[in-house]
Structure formats: structure tokens, C-alpha cells
Write a structure and sequence with these properties.
Elements (H helix, E strand, L loop, with lengths): L4 E6 L5 H4 L4 E7 L25 E4 L1 H4 L8 E6 L10 E8 L7 E3 L1 H5 L7 H7 L2 E8 L9 E4 L9 E6 L6 E9 L6 E7 L2 E4 L7 E9 L2 E11 L8 E3 L41 H20 L9 E5 L8 H16 L3 E4 L5 H12 L4 E6 L3 H4 L7 E5 L2 H10 L3 E4 L4 H15 L7 E4 L6 H12 L12 E3 L2 H10 L13 H5 L9 H16 L3
Parallel strand pairs: 2-6, 3-5, 16-17, 16-20, 17-18, 18-19, 20-21, 21-22
Antiparallel strand pairs: 1-14, 2-7, 3-6, 4-5, 4-7, 8-9, 8-15, 9-12, 10-11, 10-13, 11-12, 13-14
Length: 530
């Protein structure tokens, strides 16, 4: 089969948890039954036994990531100097571990792999081991990325596939499918684990393109002629691709190197070999944790906000500097702390995805509003909170504004700047009096602020409107300024009402060009009526 591979670089983002290469401290247990991980949540089935010599792992939700972490490789070593080797072992994630006492539950082969030669039975007696681990690249020198058609597929109405032998230190976060030679792509959604599906199956031979992320960078991988026109269920097809991307180190020196058998964290002597989640001890621990959280919340003094919902404008990229993503997460924490819900652009990548996922994880309601045309570009198939699709960009901004009590702009590109300036303009025209804030992370918006000062000095912006929005270098200070904001009262500007204006009859006998402009203006005004 002839394969043509095109590679297009993008600035996309993925969660740092699943792609970082820093060393983490935790505990691991093991499955006593050899076949336990073969039927894991990733959906690899009996194929899993052939992965990595059977050294497999079930990972915590933060690593499993709703299936994006399936196929990831981790190097794990235990800390008992008498039993454990310095090299440890490498495992592949094939399942999800819901027991919050360990980050991983290993197959017995994986657990024994951490031991020194001849100490396999001794390490099994530990049941649970203190470990340190880090993400490492998966290496499939003799295998390309493969696509397996699932048995549940039903031509021509339903197609489900899973990806095998995903190399490097990567995650597949979006998949599109199209007929070979066609540019009419249909996006697939993650059904579960490593399985992606669609009910919009193109005819004929099929090509795939995938967004593959590594750390904060992402690429489109495009493989043509992957599935033949007569594709069969249960058959594995070669994509012709080898994925080898590796994330850059993003941790401090102390966190980014193997430690030399540091002192173990307090052991859980009561934790026997997994599974034991049904024990009363587990229930007691869970209740104790919940009780502690409740007590902490009761002790916190919660200041009621004047807002209920905050609209955040930000990029579908995370940028090249860690400070931007940290600022997004800091803003999310501030919103959660104040019990504020989020309205945003509906994407699940970049700063958009970081803010939405963090607010959602913190218990806040998340409303994403996204144009249908951008679904395949700004969403990875994983829905965060409530997502509403609209017809276009103007309707998106109108809906975001209608559902929000104030606006915050994080760093972003043209789209973010356009959204920010439009809501500022609406405030200038008197369409709304909702506070607008600029999160000026590490001086990102300094030149914009300088431009506005210049426009005021040269008479293009009224001095009274210079402070029609507020800015701050961090989330806490910015939210406080928004809480204290008092709308600018400018007697020189009439408060406009789009609804009244669009009810006025159009001028008589307009020219074709004027008629077209009136129609656009009426549509625009109707969309932004707040």
C-alpha cells in the first residue's frame, strides 16, 4: 500500500501531567492475576499481552486522562535498596486505576521488573512499593503506527478504530477521517481509551489525520491510503507513520533527575496487593479525606462576588512560555475559589483547554460556545462541561457576552485581541457596562497599553475612556479590580440600543451595495443585543 505522509507543525497544547518528563514520587501495587490488564479501559484487549513483554500498568486518572494517556510509557523504580534495581522497569499504560492510594497498579511482570536479579519473589511480598517514576518515550523501532478496525464497526454507518504502537512521548488528541483524495474531513470522537469512532463514514478508501501532542507542542500527522475501500473488522492496517516526538524537559533540576534512593514517603502498611478497594479501610480513608475537605471549606471565609459568570478570552495555543499556562491555571483557581462559573470559546486545546479543564475539575460550571466550523480545529473530541455550537464568529461573541457578567482576556493571538477590543468597543458605545479586564502576564500586553495611551494623547480616544477597562499582572489582583470597577460615565457618548435601531425601516431604494451593508449591519446588531 502506497503511503504519503505529510507533517504540518501547529502550536497546540496538551496537559503537562501526561507529557512531562519530571520525576514523581508515589506508590505502586500489582495485579495478582496476569490477565487483569488485558481487558483494561484503554480497549487493547488481548493485544496488550504482546506490549512490552507484558509489563503493563493501570494509571491514575490524572495520567490516564480520559484515554489520552493510553499507550504512554513510564520508567518506574522502587526505593528499597536491598530489593530494587537502580534501573527499574518500563511499563505501558493499558488501563485506568481508580484507587487514589497509588499512581499505578502494575502487572506482576512489571512489578517484578523493578527488582534486582533473583529478588522477584521478594519484591512481590511487599505488595505495595514506594517508587519514583517519570514519563519516557515509547520506542517501536520495527513498527509503524497501526490502525485497528474494531469489531463494532458497521459499514457504511459506523467506524471505530484504535491506534497501536504510538511511539515517542506523545498523545493523540484529535482524529479526522476522509475519503482518499478528498478534503472533506469528518472529525472522530474518543469513544473510550484508545478507541475513536464516527457515524459519518466516508465511502471508499480512507485517510486519517491526527493531532499528536508532545508537551506543549503539537503536529498534524497526515497519512493517506490507510484503510482500503473493502476494510474489514478486526484487521490491523499500517499507517506508514512512525511517531517519535519527545517533550522538552520542563521541570527544575531537582525535580528533573532520578533521585538516589531518597527517604521513602510514609508507607501504607495496610495496603495489600491490589485489588483491595472494597475493604473497609479504603472507605474509612475516603470518608476521612471528604471530612477534612468539608472542614477546610467551612473554615474558609468566602467573600461573595458581584459576578456569577466570567467570560475568558484566550488563545487556542499555550504559547512558548510556561508562564502563560501557569497564569491560565492561576485564573482558574481564582474563579473556583470565588465560586464563579466560566464562559469561554469552547475549545479544549491551548489556554482555552487549560482554563476550562481546571475550572471544571474544581467544581465550577463551564459553558463553551464554539462555531461549527472550528469544532475540528479547537476541540480534541473531549467535551469539558457544557458545549454549545453556533453558526459563526459574531454569534459566538454575542452568546459569550450574553451569558457573562464580566470579561477577562488572557494572552492570545488575533482572535483573542479581536474579542477583547470588540467588548471594549461595546462598552465605549454604551451597549453594556460590564467590567473588562486584561491579564497582563509578564508584560504581554504592554505594547497594547502603550498604543491606547498614544491614542488618548493624540485625540482618538477620550481621556475619560482610557480606564474603560482594567489590567493587572496576576489573576487575584485583576479579579479584585473587576469587583471594584465602576462603569465610566461619559456624557458625550449616547447609550446605544441595537434592538431599537434594527426596528427602524431601512432607507428607501438603497443601491445593491448599500442594501447588502444594511443587511449585514442588522444581522450584526441583532447578534450583539445584550
Amino acid at each position: 500500500m502506497f503511503n504519503l505522509v505529510c507533517l504540518v507543525s501547529l502550536l497546540l497544547a496538551s496537559s503537562a501531567i501526561a507529557c512531562d518528563r519530571c520525576v514523581h514520587q508515589s506508590k505502586v501495587a500489582f495485579f495478582s492475576k496476569a490477565d487483569a490488564l488485558q481487558s483494561g479501559a484503554c480497549g487493547y484487549g488481548s493485544l496488550a499481552i504482546g506490549f512490552n513483554g507484558g509489563r503493563l500498568a493501570a494509571a491514575a486518572p490524572s495520567i490516564y486522562k480520559d484515554g489520552a494517556g493510553c499507550g504512554a510509557c513510564f520508567q518506574i523504580r522502587c526505593k528499597n535498596e536491598d530489593i530494587c534495581s537502580k534501573e527499574g522497569t518500563t511499563v505501558i499504560v493499558t488501563d485506568r486505576n481508580n484507587d487514589n492510594r497509588t499512581d499505578f497498579v502494575l502487572s506482576s511482570r512489571g512489578f517484578i521488573g523493578m527488582a534486582k536479579k533473583g529478588m522477584g519473589q521478594d519484591i512481590l511480598k511487599l505488595g505495595v512499593a514506594d517508587v519514583e517514576y517519570k514519563r519516557v518515550p515509547c520506542d517501536y523501532k520495527d513498527k509503524n503506527l497501526a490502525v485497528r478496525v474494531e469489531e463494532s464497526s458497521q459499514k457504511p454507518n459506523y467506524l471505530a478504530v484504535k491506534f497501536l504502537y504510538q511511539g515517542g512521548q506523545t498523545e493523540i488528541v484529535a482524529v479526522d477521517v476522509a475519503q482518499v483524495g478528498s478534503s472533506n474531513w469528518n472529525f472522530m470522537t474518543r469513544n473510550y481509551g484508545a478507541v475513536w469512532d464516527t457515524s459519518r463514514v466516508p465511502n471508499g478508501a480512507l485517510q486519517f489525520r491526527m493531532v499528536v501532542t508532545s508537551g506543549f507542542d503539537g503536529k498534524w500527522y497526515w497519512a493517506k491510503n490507510v484503510l482500503p475501500a473493502d476494510w474489514k473488522n478486526g484487521v490491523i492496517y499500517d499507517s506508514g507513520l512512525q511517531i517519535t516526538d519527545i517533550a522538552q524537559e520542563g521541570c527544575s533540576t531537582s525535580a528533573g533527575i532520578w533521585l538516589s534512593f531518597p527517604s521513602a514517603v510514609p508507607s501504607l502498611s495496610h495496603l495489600s496487593a491490589y485489588p483491595s478497594s472494597s475493604s473497609s479501610t479504603t472507605a474509612n480513608n475516603t470518608n476521612r479525606i471528604h471530612s477534612t475537605v468539608r472542614e477546610k471549606r467551612m473554615d474558609e471565609k468566602l467573600v461573595k462576588s458581584r459576578f456569577k459568570r466570567v467570560c475568558v478570552f484566550c488563545g487556542s495555543s499555550s504559547g512558548k512560555r510556561d508562564c502563560y499556562r501557569e497564569a491560565a491555571l492561576d485564573l482558574a483557581r481564582e474563579l473556583v475559589a470565588k465560586r464563579l462559573d466560566l464562559v469561554y470559546g469552547g475549545g479544549s486545546i491551548g489556554l482555552m483547554g487549560s482554563v476550562a479543564q481546571a475550572v471544571h475539575a474544581g467544581g465550577g460550571h463551564v459553558l463553551g460556545i464554539i462555531p461549527r466550523a472550528l469544532v475540528g480545529k479547537e476541540r480534541t473530541g473531549e467535551t469539558v462541561g457544557e458545549v454549545r455550537m453556533v453558526g459563526g464568529m459574531h454569534q459566538r461573541k454575542a452568546e459569550m457576552a450574553r451569558h457573562s457578567d464580566c470579561f477577562i482576556a488572557l494572552p492570545g493571538g488575533y482572535g483573542t485581541l479581536e474579542e477583547l477590543l470588540e467588548v471594549i468597543t461595546w462598552a465605549q458605545l454604551g451597549i453594556h457596562d460590564k467590567p473588562v479586564g486584561l491579564l497582563n502576564v509578564d508584560g504581554y500586553y504592554n505594547y497594547l497599553l502603550t498604543f491606547i495611551d498614544k491614542a488618548v494623547d493624540d485625540g482618538f480616544i477620550r481621556p475619560s475612556q482610557r480606564h474603560i477597562f482594567v489590567s493587572a499582572p496576576n489573576a487575584k489582583e485583576l479579579v479584585q479590580k473587576l469587583e471594584e470597577y465602576v462603569p465610566v460615565q461619559d456624557g458625550g457618548v449616547a447609550k446605544l440600543n441595537w434592538t431599537v435601531e434594527i426596528e427602524q425601516p431601512p432607507p428607501p431604494s438603497p443601491t445593491p451595495a448599500a442594501s447588502k451593508q444594511v443587511g449585514f449591519t442588522a444581522l450584526k446588531k441583532a447578534e450583539i443585543a445584550l
